[in-house]
Amino acid sequence: MLKDLAQKYYDMDYNCAESMVHAGNEYYGLGLSEHDMRMVGAFGGGMQVGDVCGALTGAACVISAKYIETRAHAQKQELHDVTLKLVRAFQEKFGSRLCGKIKAEYFEKEIRCLNTVQTAADVLEKVIVDYDKERTQA
Fold it and tell me: Which of the ends of the chain has fewer CB neighbours closer than 10 A, N or C?
């Protein structure tokens, strides 16, 4: 499961965004290089300032890598649809998209944001499964 891989990377001391992208790369065979995945490092901790949760931004990066073939504008509607599903599902699960608010409820000193990363991975995996089903039925 995606959340198991996300935990593996989080346990290796990657931040929430990095863990999501590493896990997504491995789980979905995205073909991202180590350099590609380093670009999300600043998204951890809500872009280092408690803003949008790094697990959510990392999940959005996985969606981009999975669905964009050339550039986002070429697939604007498709990217919008699946990203909207992700953001809504994440917001529903956590009650917020903001790291600071999520941390206040889910952070545990011993495991830090592991629960958030695992739950975000579950949300992402479900969104992708559901979205792929919709696409094949259309």
Answer: C
